[in-house]
Amino acid sequence: MMRLGGRARGLHLLVPLMAGRLFKVSALATAVCASSGFYLYNRKLNLDDLSVIRFGRAAATTAIISFDYLTAFKHVEYGTEEYWAVRSKVHLRSAERLRDLCCANRGTFIKVGQHLGALDYLLPEEYTSTLKVLHSRAPQSSMQEIQQVIREDLGKELSELFVAFEEKPHGAASLAQVHKAVLHDGRTVAIKVQHPKVQSQSVKDIVMMEVLVKGVHWLCPDFAFMWLVDEAKKNMPLELDFLREGQNAEKVANMLAHFPFLKVPKIHWELSTKRILTMEFAEGGQVNDREYMKKHGINVNETKG
User: Fold this and answer.
1) Dist CA 55 CA 47 (whole Å)
2) Which of 110, 258, 259, 300 has CA atoms 20 to 30 A from the CA of 22?
3) Do 80 and 178 reside in the same domain of the chain?
4) How many domains does the chain have?
5) Is residue 87 part of a domain?
6) Is 103 found in the same domain as 188?
7) Is residue 167 within 8 Å of 174, Cβ to Cβ?
């Protein structure tokens, strides 16, 4: 849909056919949403726990965005000032709808949205600037959910494992969040805990994205983003395996051990699983925090040999 502008001259010839297809897709999405809402009302379940609700939300958003692109340029001449103004507005509307979808479905959707927000070289500026906010709007799991994951994976309560555990996370991302804690022997650790539903939802979410992307490609043959789904299918299982992350951290520590200024936190394997990564807590600041650098006398222009 992002490359539609380059072929807008012939677009009006395809609109009736595509609009007919889109009407069928929209009708199906509406039926899915309605039936899902009725089911939810009767069962009193959490929206985000239901794949049918997540799919209905994604399908409806995809249908709305596709219809917007298919109809917005119908009476606009390609190359005119009006055309470029309309295109920018459609990009922005679509990006905002996509952002809202990612925030609503969370997990894998936010991860993919963050990836899209970094594609400055490929996507229009309206998309990248809108989706970049997903880096700072990652959801947080409740303390009850964090305790549940720790209980399930480590088989113990927080009080049995830690003397102190900070409830407010030091950071939250699309797949996990990090808490500071103190072990019974006095060592301070950072414990990265995966959001409880991400593991079970990720496979379904990727299949959902694959179906929707193929549907958009069917409507708009110029839309060629299947590679993004392929990347998610390949990398998401790896990112959700925190034991692999810990192993990679140790490999990096060994490879770069000759750099005395570089600190790679030690992994506490006895308190780590596929969904939990416990490591040595290291004080520090963001690499882009100029105030932190200035306060600690770090010269950002200095190179280390």
Assistant:
1) 11
2) 110
3) no
4) 2
5) yes
6) no
7) no
* CA distances (Å), origin 241, targets 135, 238, 270: 21, 5, 16
Summarize pLDDT for 99-153 with one digit per residue, the tens.
Answer: 999 999 988 899 999 989 988 888 899 999 999 988 877 788 999 999 999 999 9
* Tokens read off for 279: 């490591």
Domain span holding position 70 = 4-138
Model confidence pLDDT, tens digit, residues 6-19: 444 444 444 444 55
Q: How many CA atoms lie within 13 A of 101 on its CB side?
A: 25
The Cβ of residue 105 has, within 10 Å, a number of other Cβ atoms equal to 23
pTM: 0.74
67 and 28 in a common domain: yes
Candidates 15, 97, 90; CA nearest to 60 is 97
Q: Is residue 94 part of a domain?
A: yes
Q: Are residues 132 and 151 in the same domain?
A: no
Q: What does the pLDDT look like over 32-61, one tens digit per residue? A: 555 545 544 454 455 556 788 889 999 999
Question: Which of 138, 155, 185 lies at the terminal end of a domain, its last residue?
Answer: 138
Q: Which two tokens stand for residue 262?
A: 């570089």
Tokens 């994951």 belong to residue = 149
**C-alpha–C-alpha distance, residues 227 and 165, integer Å:** 41
